[in-house]
Design brief:
Helices cover 19% and strands 23% of the residues. It is of the alpha+beta class and 221 residues long. The N and C termini lie far apart (71 Å).
Length: 221
C-alpha cells in the first residue's frame, strides 16, 4: 500500500511538471516564457504613460523583405506600449522567428531562440478571458502576444497569424495587423524546415529579424 501511494505521488509530480513545461493553445501547442522573480510589470505605469491611437513598425527580415504592421494602442495600450519600447531599445534587432507552424503562425522575439526567453518586463494580458475588453480578432495578418498558461506572462515574444485562427480570440492579446508583406509570412511558412513537434526550428534555419523600427504610416493607408 505504501509503495502504491509513493507511485501515485511521483505520478502526480511528473504530470504537474509536464503541464508547467508545456502550455496548451487551441492547436495544442504553446511555448512557455520563463521569467525571473525580479521581473517588472508595465502595469506599474500610469495611464498617462500608455500610448493611444495607431502606431506603425517595419519588421525587416534578412533575405526576405519587410513586413509593415499597424498597431492599435486604443484597444491594446499596454501591449503596444511595451512593444514600441522594446523596438526603440533595439531589443528585437538580430533575433529570429524561432517557431513556424504553416497555416497557423510565425513566432519570434525570443532572445534565447528556443521559446523560453523574454524581456525583463511581463505585461497584463489584454484579452477578454483575462477581464480586459479587446475586440481585435486573430484573422490572417494579426500580430499578437505569445504567453505561457499564466494570463499575465507575455513579455517580448509575439506572433503573426498566417491563416485565420478564431480559436485564439479571447485568450491572446492581438494588438495590430500586417498592412503589407504577408507574402513574406507565406514564404517563411512554405520554406521553413526542420521543425520539431512544436514548430521550433533549428537555430540555423530560423529567419533573422535584422531590425524592427518605428515608422510613419504609408501614404496608401
Amino acid at each position: 500500500m505504501k509503495k502504491r501511494k509513493e507511485r501515485k505521488k511521483w505520478f502526480r509530480f511528473w504530470i504537474f511538471t509536464l503541464f508547467c513545461m508545456i502550455g496548451i493553445t487551441a492547436c495544442g501547442k504553446e511555448n512557455i516564457q520563463f521569467t525571473t522573480s525580479e521581473t517588472k510589470s508595465i502595469t506599474e505605469q500610469s495611464e498617462e504613460e500608455l500610448l493611444t491611437g495607431k502606431h506603425y513598425v517595419e519588421i525587416q527580415i534578412k533575405e526576405k523583405g519587410t513586413i509593415y504592421v499597424e498597431l492599435d494602442a486604443d484597444h491594446a495600450p499596454i501591449t503596444v506600449t511595451n512593444f514600441i519600447q522594446l523596438v526603440k531599445e533595439g531589443f528585437y534587432d538580430g533575433l529570429t522567428f524561432h517557431r513556424v507552424v504553416d497555416g497557423f503562425m510565425i513566432q519570434g522575439g525570443d532572445p534565447q531562440g528556443d521559446g523560453y526567453g523574454g524581456s525583463e518586463v511581463k505585461i497584463t494580458g489584454e484579452f477578454p478571458n483575462n477581464g480586459i475588453e479587446n475586440p481585435l480578432k486573430h484573422t490572417r495578418g494579426a500580430i499578437s502576444m505569445a504567453r505561457s498558461m499564466l494570463p499575465d506572462s507575455a513579455s517580448s515574444q509575439f506572433f503573426i497569424v498566417h491563416q485565420d485562427s478564431p480559436s485564439l480570440d479571447g485568450d491572446y492579446a492581438a494588438f495590430g495587423y500586417v498592412t503589407e508583406g504577408m507574402e513574406i509570412v507565406d514564404d517563411i511558412c512554405a520554406t521553413a524546415t526542420g521543425q520539431d513537434f512544436n514548430g521550433i526550428l533549428p537555430a540555423e534555419n530560423q529567419p533573422i529579424i535584422e531590425h524592427i523600427v518605428v515608422a510613419e504610416p504609408k501614404e496608401s493607408e
